[in-house]
């Protein structure tokens, strides 16, 4: 799948990449009953702008902005990959000098270790967290912190799974953080499980 965006004097060509899309508050009502998570859509008549948020959902330097005249049509194409991962390898994340903390990433690894859940007060609110260690196929280990409902989901899953089976953890749109060493954590309301 390839998309060409006409950006005035220059054209931008994307091949199988994610691109961030934004719907501003005044236009939400136009699209909230049309768009649903997991849907596939043809979109036309939108704006293109440079993408520079605090946390980028994609490494793409552009984003599309839905406007009043934007047209959206749901399409059905079984050949289109409905889930597009952009996995970062553990060796790309272990080097704190090269880690980009502003771009959300996808990771996959075997659950090698888990610690007890704990509660922590952050900005005056109680938050639940659990530290785990993920391991890749090369044996590299990466610390990971799960927050909120993700703690309960993992705990519930581990209570019903056979202890002898490996547990594979896949986090989409999590973020890397440097605390001496690099660790990853889910991002509230963005990370998919």
From TrEMBL:
<dbReference type="InterPro" id="IPR012340">
    <property type="entry name" value="NA-bd_OB-fold"/>
</dbReference>
<keyword id="KW-0238">DNA-binding</keyword>
<dbReference type="GO" id="GO:0003677">
    <property type="term" value="F:DNA binding"/>
</dbReference>
<dbReference type="InterPro" id="IPR003871">
    <property type="entry name" value="RFA1B/D_OB_1st"/>
</dbReference>
<feature type="domain" description="Replication protein A 70 kDa DNA-binding subunit B/D first OB fold">
    <location>
        <begin position="17"/>
        <end position="73"/>
    </location>
</feature>
<protein>
    <submittedName>
        <fullName>Replication protein A 70 kDa DNA-binding subunit</fullName>
    </submittedName>
</protein>
<dbReference type="Pfam" id="PF02721">
    <property type="entry name" value="DUF223"/>
</dbReference>
């Amino acid at each position: 799948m390839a998309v060409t965006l006409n950006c005035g004097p220059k054209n931008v060509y994307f091949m199988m990449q994610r691109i961030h899309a934004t719907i501003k508050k005044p236009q939400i009502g136009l699209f909230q009953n049309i768009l649903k998570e997991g849907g596939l859509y043809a979109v036309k008549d939108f704006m293109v702008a440079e993408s520079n948020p605090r946390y980028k959902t994609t490494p793409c330097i552009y984003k599309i902005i839905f406007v009043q005249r934007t047209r959206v049509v749901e399409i059905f194409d079984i050949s289109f990959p409905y889930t597009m991962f952009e996995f970062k390898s553990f060796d790309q994340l272990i080097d704190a000098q090269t880690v980009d903390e502003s771009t959300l990433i996808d990771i996959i690894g075997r659950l090698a270790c888990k610690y007890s859940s704990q509660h922590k007060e952050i900005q005056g609110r109680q938050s639940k967290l659990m530290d785990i260690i993920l391991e890749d196929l090369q044996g590299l280990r990466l610390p990971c912190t799960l927050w909120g409902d993700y703690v309960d989901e993992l705990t519930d899953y581990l209570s019903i799974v056979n202890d002898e089976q490996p547990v594979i953890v896949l986090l989409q749109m999590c973020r890397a953080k440097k605390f001496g060493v690099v660790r990853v954590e889910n991002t509230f309301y963005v990370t998919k499980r």
